[in-house]
Structure formats: structure tokens, C-alpha cells
């Protein structure tokens, strides 16, 4: 049987599309991609947050040199702490988790922007070179007072 030339072209084109789709999905699944959630901090049982040494006491801890760790609880509808202060020139690692529903922890004007999922600890490290003040916002709809969930991060001279 003789296959018409156009039919061959269409067959080839559809094969290219199928391979392309599979490649796209594969790349999305195993490639570097963009992660919505930083869960580098590992998992945590929401009922045992207070037993985790990082969240026993939320807030800023100086770990040496210019390095700081900040433990934050994102909960309906506030951050604990809601005011964070670190010195300029510091390297800050945030650990953020939620005891209730999914929130986000977004430091406006920086690349700190992660979902905060109950059961996961989001971890990210950022350097703050210049003094300044940043807003902290929840970008993930979390209920009636979602819009009131905010805080400030001050980088002081
Ligand atoms: Cu928390 Cu929106």
C-alpha cells in the first residue's frame, strides 16, 4: 500500500509533537524547573512544631559571623514573629512552617517567596547587603483574614 506524501508529513509532524510533549513533561518532572515550595527544611508534624528545636522559640538567632537563622510560624492570620530585624551584610536562613493551613512567606522585593505547607519546613538563605525595610506578605489565600497577614523585615545598619 502506498502512503500519500501529505499523510507521511502529517504522521511525522504528529510524532514530533508527541515527542515534544513527552519531553516537556519529563523536563518539568525531573528537570531543574521552578519550585513553588522550598521544602529543603524537611518535614515536620504540625502537632509537634513546638517540640522542634528550630520552632521552640520563633525569631532571630545569631549563629556566628554574619550568619543568622530566623524561625517563623505562618498561621491564620499572622506571622510569628511579625517583625524581624537583622543587620546589613548578614546571611539569613529562614525556616518557615505552618501549624494550620497553607500560607506563603514572601519578602517583597527579594527572591524570598515560598509556599508554607503544614508538615513541611520551607528553608531559604538570602543575603541582605544594604539596610532597608521589606514587607512580608502571604500570597496564598488562607481564609477570611488572609489580607491582614503581614509583617516587616528590617535590615539595620
Ligand atoms: Cu496566610 Cu494568606
UniProtKB/TrEMBL annotation:
Is this entry keyworded Membrane?
yes
Annotated membrane-spanning segments are: 9-30
Q: What is its main location?
A: other
Q: Where is the Cytochrome oxidase subunit II copper A binding domain?
A: 65-157
State the GO CC annotations. membrane
GO molecular-function term, one example from the UniProt record: copper ion binding
Localization: Cell envelope
Domain of life according to the entry: Archaea
Report keywords, A-Z: Copper, Membrane, Metal-binding, Transmembrane, Transmembrane helix
* Name used for this protein in its record: Cytochrome C oxidase subunit II
Q: Which residues of the full protein are shown?
A: 1 to 157 of 270
Amino acid at each position: 500500500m502506498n502512503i500519500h506524501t501529505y499523510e507521511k508529513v502529517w504522521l511525522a509532524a504528529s510524532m514530533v509533537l508527541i515527542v515534544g510533549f513527552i519531553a516537556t513533561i519529563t523536563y518539568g518532572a525531573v528537570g531543574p524547573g521552578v519550585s513553588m515550595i522550598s521544602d529543603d527544611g524537611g518535614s515536620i508534624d504540625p502537632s509537634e512544631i513546638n517540640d522542634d528545636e528550630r520552632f521552640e522559640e520563633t525569631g532571630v538567632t545569631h549563629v556566628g559571623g554574619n550568619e543568622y537563622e530566623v524561625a517563623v510560624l505562618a498561621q491564620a492570620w499572622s506571622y510569628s514573629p511579625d517583625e524581624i530585624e537583622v543587620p546589613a551584610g548578614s546571611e539569613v536562613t529562614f525556616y518557615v512552617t505552618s501549624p494550620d493551613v497553607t500560607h506563603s512567606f514572601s519578602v517583597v522585593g527579594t527572591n524570598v517567596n515560598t509556599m508554607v505547607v503544614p508538615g513541611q519546613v520551607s528553608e531559604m538563605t538570602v543575603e541582605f547587603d544594604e539596610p532597608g525595610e521589606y514587607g512580608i506578605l502571604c500570597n496564598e489565600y488562607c481564609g477570611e483574614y488572609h489580607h491582614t497577614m503581614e509583617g516587616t523585615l528590617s535590615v539595620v545598619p
